[in-house]
Design goal:
Elements (H helix, E strand, L loop, with lengths): L3 E7 L3 H12 L4 E5 L22 H14 L4 E3 L2 E7 L2 E6 L4 E9 L3 E4 L6 H4 L4 E2 L2 H4 L8 E4 L3 H10 L6 E4 L8 H9 L3 E3 L3 E7 L2 E7 L4 E3 L2 E4 L2 E4 L3 H5 L27 E3 L10 H24 L17
Parallel strand pairs: 1-2, 1-6, 2-3, 6-17, 8-15, 9-10, 9-15, 10-11
Antiparallel strand pairs: 4-5, 5-6, 7-16, 12-13, 13-14
The protein binds flavin-adenine dinucleotide.
């Protein structure tokens, strides 16, 4: 407990590991605490990540932890239950009672993904049922697909998925009205609309085989894009007093950050899904990396005086000058 870390990173997903790597390479005394259960673990592969495309998520996280070890950044398994204090003197409490102290904290705790609650969906989640066509569209290409969405996102997601297949059915499950204009645009793109309530998803050999409607009829489908919302996993950030960003159609309660990943609470940084950015591994790694550079910069500013001289310094807009 006497030891004080330069930074404690909470969360060991793409954002947290990306941050830990940059902090370690900057020779900052860094601890990463991770509860496990990164959001994409159910997927066969990470779609769209340069250098790791289509390879298992668990492999990515294991490689990341190995890389952090190279730079002396310990990854501790555990769950942070509370963070108190202020910049320079944060106290990070873990479930089980242990406490660690840090000058900065970086929240990279991800989000809980909430797809529609439909029987059969959970078993297929992250494979033939997915939240993001950029992540999983390639694997579902040229197959009969469906989009399960209502409201403003329905038409957008259906038209987007059209990039990957010309056999798309938009399922609104009896919720929300499509305007005449939306119907016309969907029709023009060759997308069918079915507004009957969806009762369940059926699987064959672990992959989606059909959508079952409440009236008993079935629609054979090989893949389904489900409009999903995201919510913070716990109230850790809220208890710390961080400022929230405006809720969006996907992220319900994102943490607010500026371009340097700082929150309005001095010394608190956040990155990844938690901040409501595009939910993709590449984006999370990039944000973690940027947050780590901002943490390092803030420590140097504190230790050696501010403002820093020009030269490889991130500006308030997140640009390098
Ligand atoms: C099913 C599925 C499939 C996906 N597939 C892809 C894909 O193919 N390609 C792609 O680019 N993106 C994909 N994504 C999105 C991608 O997984 C996320 O955008 C990315 O993982 C976000 O990284 P993160 O580090 O912010 O959060 P996460 O990866 O969720 O990691 C957060 C970590 O923080 C830990 N944590 C949370 N709270 C605490 C606490 N209090 N104490 C300690 N640790 C804590 C969690 O246990 C977790 O390990 C997918 C998402 C899902 C849900």
């Amino acid at each position: 407990m006497d030891e004080i870390w330069d930074c404690i990173v909470v969360g060991g997903g793409a954002a947290g590991l990306g941050a830990g790597l940059v902090l370690g390479r900057a020779r900052r005394k860094t601890l990463l605490v991770d509860a496990g259960g990164q959001s994409n673990l159910s997927a066969h592969g990470v779609g769209g990540l340069l250098g790791h495309d289509g390879r298992p998520p668990a492999e990515l996280y294991a490689l990341g932890r190995d890389e952090l070890a190279t730079y002396g950044v310990p990854v501790r398994s555990g769950e942070v239950s509370d963070i108190t204090g202020e910049a320079g003197h944060f106290v990070v409490r873990l479930h089980g009672g242990d406490e660690e102290r840090a000058r900065r904290v970086l929240l990279a705790t991800g989000m809980t993904y909430l797809p529609p609650a439909i029987p059969g969906l959970a078993e297929l989640w992250g494979r033939s049922v997915f939240h993001c066509p950029f992540c999983h569209g390639w694997e579902a290409r040229d197959q009969p697909l469906a989009v399960l969405a209502d409201g403003d996102r329905a038409t957008h997601l259906a038209l987007l998925l059209r990039c990957w297949s010309d056999d798309i059915v938009l399922l609104t499950s009896g919720r929300g009205e499509l305007s005449n204009d939306e119907r016309a645009r969907l029709c023009e793109a060759g997308i069918a609309i079915d507004e009957r309530p969806v009762a369940a998803l059926e699987a064959l050999d672990g992959e989606l085989s059909a959508v079952a409607f409440a009236d008993g009829e079935r629609l054979p489908r090989a893949g389904l894009l489900a409009a999903t919302v995201m919510r913070q996993r716990d109230r850790l950030a809220e208890r710390l007093g961080v400022t929230a960003a405006a809720p969006g159609p996907v992220a319900e309660d994102p943490v607010g950050v500026d371009p340097l990943c700082r929150n309005s609470i001095p010394g608190v940084f956040a990155a990844g899904d938690l901040t409501g950015e595009m939910p993709q591994v590449a984006a999370a790694i990039a944000a973690g990396s940027r947050a780590a550079a901002a943490v390092v910069q803030s420590l140097v500013a504190e230790d050696y005086g501010s403002p820093l001289p020009p030269g490889n310094v991130m500006t308030e807009q997140g640009r390098v000058r």
